[in-house]
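Record type: monomer structure entry
Structure origin: computed from sequence
Chain ID: A
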Amino acid sequence: MNRAGFGTRLFLASSLVVIGCVVSAAVVSVLIAPGLFHEHLRQAGIEEDSGLAAHIEMAFRGTLVPAWGIAALVAVLIALAVSWWLARRVDRSVGALAESAGDIARGRYDTRVDDAGLGREFADLADAVNELARRLGETESTRRRMLADLGHEMRTPIATIDSHIEALEDGVRTADADTIRVLRAGSQRLARLAEDINAVSRVQEGLDPIRPERTTTGALVTAALTAASAAYRDAGLDLQVDTDPDIVLTVDPARIGQVLGNLLDNARRHTPRGGSVTLRTGLAGDSVVVTVADSGEGIDPEHLPHVFDRFYRTDSARSSRDGGSGIGLTIVFALVQAHGGTVSAASDGPGTGAAFTVTLPTVGASEGSANLDA
């Protein structure tokens, strides 16, 4: 069964209200006006049964009834016209919202709803629908880009594993230590890629809980250095520390530890043997500033705005030769953002090293929150 539209029902309701008001006014007038009229005659000293009173009453009725009727008719017509106009505008606005919601449900995320000018509530509703469409569009674009990038990233280790297996089957290679090492490296890279994809997706979609607690920069740095020292020693790099260990801040230690670990790992992979990496912490106003600077390959200025993008690599400093998944810095960006902080990259160009700076509020913006909001 077809139901009347919202605009139609609004118009009918408004019409009933107007008609009810007119009828009520008429009834009240009939009941009250004669009494008031005769009271005024009495106060003027005119007898109600006199000819003068009858003439005055006839004149009153002959003037009041037509004037009141015309005024009531004009008021009803104006009210109905305004109600019809408003109902039409509301109907069009609601219809546009319903159509846009249907388009969004069908995957048309470029859909936008214009403000109908019906007030703050309708404007807020239109903004909410537009924001929903924008976020869904970004999510869909990210999903498609991630799947495309993931397919590209998996192609190299899969091809390497497949070629070595084929060589083993053809007898070209033997299952010696070198072959096993190559196969294991390929499988480990695929496993790391899967883990990082899952990690960044959960962070950006707010699926993992964050547990803020009071800690110090000294505790965070000590944990990060403990985890990274062996890899730095094997890589022949000098890891220097310049920190203020007594700065108190409220963060999730595990998450910020992951941030520091990824930044140190990124610096290690892009700094040649004999180079150095420096970890600094300090206080700037109400924020803690953490910088990881290396003397490595550096980054071309044109690539700096993109280093936190998923799978983004430059021709030199962000190549896949070092075994990175291309997602570590994306995870850093999402985790820092979830804590209400910022992260940036700086470099004077290839061969000059790079510095990554994290700024965190001493009292985390996410304190008391149950989930990451990335």
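Annotation 1: The helical segments are 6-43, 51-105, 120-170, 177-204, 217-235, 253-269, 328-338.
Annotation 2: The beta strands are 213-216, 238-242, 248-251, 276-284, 287-294, 342-346, 354-361.
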